[in-house]
Design a protein that fits this description.
The protein is α/β, with parallel strands linked by helices. It has a single domain, classed as Rossmann fold, CATH 3.40.50. About 35% of the residues lie in helices and about 20% in strands. The chain contains seven helices and nine strands, in the order βαβββααβαββαβαβα. The protein has a seven-stranded parallel beta sheet with strand order 3-2-1-4-5-6-9, with helices on both faces. Strands 7-8 form a two-stranded parallel ribbon. The radius of gyration is 17 Å and the shape is globular. The chain starts with 15 loop residues before the first strand and ends with a helix.
Length: about 230
């Protein structure tokens, strides 16, 4: 059931049309902010389980069930920033339903809607061969979307994310808090890929890479650091 913002989006002829899933999260919020500010973007269609408290002339919000997605509006590109933790999800099965099933469902629906470019937020350490369940699911997701045939596929693998989860109504993640404290102590001694990265920097790097990459590419966390 689509729930629309007050203003209809501009014609696709005036710029790019972008699908965005996960706009309520740390990186997703930044992706939405930057897309709405981009003069080259004509319309943004967000997919989420609830409406955001935001109205904008370029924005159309779609309240969806990710397990039963409808046909999506025609689009040029898509960004997916869906993700949770096993603790928040409640079980491994529920975690996989978000971080694999929902991500793949959006990617497939975006491809069917005409999107030729896809950007996905994954995680550092993602590998289908990992012994760590979280990383293995992320890796399996990456492998699955790589088979969908996008002209451009950019996968961002950030380390610990820096951002205000409280402002989004999200619970603090203990692992992130511990990691941030450790990184403050060690500072520049940490390799760049292991330093915390700002959600805004991840969003900026992902959008830039989507515009400049042909084929598939992976953004390591250190590549997304802006300071």
């Amino acid at each position: 059931m689509p729930a629309c913002a007050s203003a209809a989006p501009p014609s696709a002829a005036s710029g790019r049309v972008v699908l965005l899933a996960g706009a309520s999260g740390l990186v997703g919020r930044e992706l939405l902010r930057q897309l709405l500010a981009d003069d080259g973007v004509a319309a943004v269609h967000t997919l989420g389980r609830r409406e955001l408290r935001l109205q904008h002339g370029k924005l159309t919000q779609h309240v969806v069930d990710f397990a039963a997605l409808p046909a999506l509006p025609r689009a040029d590109e898509a960004c997916i920033a869906l993700g949770t933790t096993i603790k928040v999800a409640g079980s491994r099965h529920a975690f996989r339903a978000v971080d694999f099933d929902a991500v793949l469902a959006v990617a497939e629906a975006a491809r069917a809607a005409g999107a030729s470019r896809l950007g996905v937020v994954s995680a550092m350490g993602a590998s289908a061969r990992s012994r760590v369940f979280y990383n293995r699911v992320k890796g399996e997701m990456e492998d699955a979307i790589a088979r969908l045939g996008f002209d451009t596929l950019v996968i961002a693998r950030p380390s610990l994310l820096v951002g205000d989860r409280e402002a989004l109504g999200q619970p603090a993640r203990a692992g992130e808090e511990i990691g941030l404290k450790v990184s403050r102590w060690l500072g520049p001694l940490l390799p760049r890929d292991y330093r915390p990265v700002a959600a805004a920097d991840v969003a900026s790097a992902l959008l830039e890479a989507m515009r400049s990459t042909a084929g598939a590419g992976v953004l390591r966390s250190g590549q997304m650091q802006r300071r």
